[in-house]
Amino acid sequence: MGRKLLLEKAHVPGIRSYEVYRREGGYASVEKALKTMSPEAIVEEVKKSGLRGRGGAGFPAGLKWSFIAKPEGVPRHLVCNADESEPGTFKDRYLMEFIPHLLIEGLIVSSYALGSHATYIYIRGEYAWITDILEQAINEAKANGFLGKNILGTGFDCEIYVHRGAGAYICGEETALIESLEGKRGNPRIKPPFPAIKGAWGRPTVVNNVETLASVVPIINLGGEEYATIGVGKSTGTKLISACGNINKPGVYEIDMTISVEEFLYSDEYCGGIPNGKKLKACIPGGSSVPILPANLLLKTAKGETRYMNYESLSDGGFASGSMMGSGGFIVLDEDQCIVRNTYSLARFYRHESCGQCSPCREGTGWMEKLLYRLEKGEGKSSDIDLLWDIQSKIEGNTICPLGDAAAWPVAAAIRHFRDEFEWHVTHAAEAQTSNFGLAHYADPIHVPTV
Amino acid sequence: MVQFSEEKLAKVKELIERYPEGKQKSALLPLLHLAQDSFGGWLSSDTMDYVASLLSIEPIEVYEVATFYSMYNTKPIGKYMFEVCQTGPCMLNGSDNIIEYISKTLGIKPGETTADGLFTLKTVECLGACGYAPLMQLGKHYREHLTKEKVDEIIAECSNTAAANN
What we know:
Order of helices and strands of chain A: HHHHEHHEHEHEHHEEEEHEEHHHEHHHHH
CATH class of the largest domain in chain A: Alpha Beta
Number of strands of chain A: 11
Distance between the termini of chain B: 25 Å
CATH architecture of the largest domain in chain A: 3-Layer(aba) Sandwich
Oligomer: heterodimer
Strand order of the largest sheet of chain A: 8-7-11-9-10
Low-confidence stretches of chain A: 445-451
Number of domains of chain B: 2
Strand order of the largest sheet of chain B: 2-1-3-4
Number of strands of chain B: 4
Radius of gyration of chain B: 18 Å
Shape of chain B: globular
Distance between the termini of chain A: 38 Å
Low-confidence stretches of chain B: none
Helix content of chain A: 40-55%
Largest sheet of chain A: 5 strands, mixed
Number of helices of chain B: 7
Number of domains of chain A: 3
CATH superfamily of the largest domain in chain A: NADH-ubiquinone oxidoreductase 51kDa subunit
CATH class of the largest domain in chain B: Alpha Beta
Strand content of chain B: 5-15%
CATH topology of the largest domain in chain B: Glutaredoxin
Mean pLDDT of chain B: 97
CATH topology of the largest domain in chain A: Rossmann fold
Number of helices of chain A: 19
Mean pLDDT of chain A: 95
Radius of gyration of chain A: 22 Å
CATH superfamily of the largest domain in chain B: Glutaredoxin
CATH architecture of the largest domain in chain B: 3-Layer(aba) Sandwich
Strand content of chain A: 5-15%
C-alpha cells in the first residue's frame, strides 16, 4: 500500500465540509506558510520538492513559479487549470468532488507565494455540479478567515473565483485558457510572451493544474526535501492515475511512482486486471494523446526491463518503444478491441476539438478522421495508411499549440505498433466488419518495432 | 424582449465584479450560461444581443464565442437533452450501442429533437468521466454506467416529471 498525500482523507465522512476538513488537520499549511514563511521560501520549497506539473507536460512547478515577472504596480494572477478534458483523465474531478478544501488550501498557499490577490479556477463547463461544490468550499473558507481581506491577520488579501468554461478541450492549453478567461474564443496565443510575463489581461500569470496546486499542501506540511524522498528519480511525490477501459476496477488511484505497470494493472489494490479472463492487447498509459503501447512494450521496456508507473520509465525508449506519463489517464484495451476503431474515435475527438487557427491541425485532423473512418468501414486502400502517416508527420511541430502534436501522436503510434492490423482492414475488408484482428504478436514477450 | 429578473441582474453584477475593472468582457462565458439557463435552454440572437448590451461589447463578440463552445445551443433544444459521450474510453465500453439504443427508442438521430419537444439526442466528446463509462450529461449532472435498462428508466423519469409539471 503506497503512501497517500492527496486522497488519504478523501473518504472521511463529511470531509467536503470545512468543519470536518479542518478537524482532520486541514488548512495547517496556510497557517504555516502565511505566518512563518516568505513567498520566496515557499517557491524554494516547491523547487526542492521536485514537483512536476500534473496536467500532462510534467514541467517542474517550482521553476515555472520562479519565472513570474514582478513589474512594479502590476497585479499578478494564479489560475488553476481545472479544464480536465484529455480523454482517459478524470482525476481532478475526483479530487475536487470529494475533497474540495484541499484544492482551496493549495490555492491560498500558492497565491501567497506568487502574490496573487485574485485567483481563478477555470473549470470545464460540463463539471457544473463541481462548480457548486467549489463555491461552497470557497464561501466556507472565507467565513473562517482563510480568504478575503487580511487572512489570519497576516495582511495578505486573496479572493478565489470559479470561472466555468463551456465545452472546449483546447481551453486546457494555458494560453487558450487565458483567452477564454478573458471572454473570448479559446484560440491559443503565440509564445513568447509566456503567461508568466504577459498572461491574463496582460498581467503576469501562472497557470497550474488542480493536482499540482493541491500537492503544494503536503509539500508545505512535510517540507520540500521530505516530499522529494517519496517516489523515484525525477518522479517525486505521489501521482493520481485515472484508470479506465477494459479493467475490473476503473477509478482514481493515488500511487507512489515506484510501482510497476504490471502491478498497477493486475493487482486488486488498483485496476484488478482485465474482466472476463481476457488478455491485454494495448494500453494508452497517460491520456489519449500519448503513444499507445502494445502489451509487450507496456509491461517491459524494449530492453526487457520492468516498466514502472513514473515519468522516466513510461517514456523509456522514446516514441519508438515508449510512451509518456502525460496526465495519468490510463486506458486499457483488451484482446477484443480494434485498434483502427479506437484510433478513429480519438481522431474524431481531435478534429472536433481543433480550434481551427492553424491550418495543419484544422485540415489535418479532418483528413485523419476521414481516412480512419474509411479504413474502419473496410473502404480503405493500402496507400491510405501511408497517407495517414504523412499527414500526422506534417501536423506535428507545425502548430501554435500542442493540440496538433496531441492529435498526431495517437495516429503515429497506432500505425507504428499495429500497422499489420491497419493492413488487415484493407486486405480483409469484409471480415474486419464482423470479426476482430485479435492479439497477433502484440502479446509476445518482446517485439521491438523498427520505425 | 429578453430581460433578466432583478435577482439575476444582481447576479450579473456580482459576476462582472469578479474580474478586473474595465475587463467586464471576461464575464461573457458565465453570463451566457446564465442567459441560456434563463431563456429556454438556448441562445437566440436577441438573447446574445442583450448579453452584449449588459457587457458593453459588440454583438459579434458574443456570437463568435457562443458558436465556439459546444455547450452553448444556438438553436432550440428539447426539454431534456441527452448528451452521450462517444470518445475513446466510452467507445471501448459500448457507448455506440447506447447511442443507437436511445436513437431507436426515441425515434430520433443524434442532433434531432422528438416531435413533442421533450427529448434531444446529442453525441459529445469526452466528458471527463471515463472510469464510469458509458455515460451522458443530463442537465447539470452526469448519468453514469449506462445500460439499456438505465436508459429506459431515465426516459421514463423525464417523461413522468414533464407530465407531472403540465
